[in-house]
Amino acid sequence: MKVFLDDVRATQSGWIRTWSPDETIALLKIGQVQEFSLDHDLASGDNFHL
After folding, report:
1. What is the CA 40 to chain-centroid distance, rounded?
2. Which helix (H) or strand (E) holds 49?
3. pLDDT band at residue 38 using 50, 70 and 90 as cut-offs
4. What is residue 46's predicted lDDT score, i.e. its pLDDT?
5. Strands (E), 1-50
6. Which of 1, 6, 29, 50 has the most CB atoms lying inside 10 A of its own CB?
7. How confident is the model at residue 9 (pLDDT cuts 50, 70, 90)?
8. Please, are residues 31 and 1 in contact by the beta-carbon 8 Å criterion?
9. What are phi and psi of 10, to 5 degrees?
10. Which value, in Å, is the radius of gyration of the alpha carbons in the chain?
């Protein structure tokens, strides 16, 4: 699967959209992510830790 984390830009066809780091991490833990695109400036400003 291809995961796209972004809070503003449109999702391209074939990608699964996530809105938060927590959603993205949950998909990464499944172990089937082949590609991912991560936004570098999420608007929420929330900090998270792996």
Report:
1. 11
2. none
3. confident
4. 56
5. 2-5, 16-18, 35-38
6. 6
7. confident
8. no
9. -70, 150
10. 11
Structure tokens at 39: 């936004």
Six token digits for residue 47: 């900090």
Structure tokens given for 44: 């929420």
| 28 Cβ contact partners less than 8 Å away, ≥ 6 residues apart | 3, 36
- pTM of the predicted model, to two decimals? 0.70
Gap between the Cα atoms of 49 and 4, Å rounded:
19
Amino acid identity, position 1: M
Question: Residue 13, SS3?
Answer: coil
- The residue count for the chain: 50
In 3D space, the residue among 21, 36, 50, 15 whose CA is nearest the CA of residue 7 turns out to be 21
Taking the C-alpha atoms of residue 12 and residue 3, their distance in angstroms, rounded to an integer, is 10
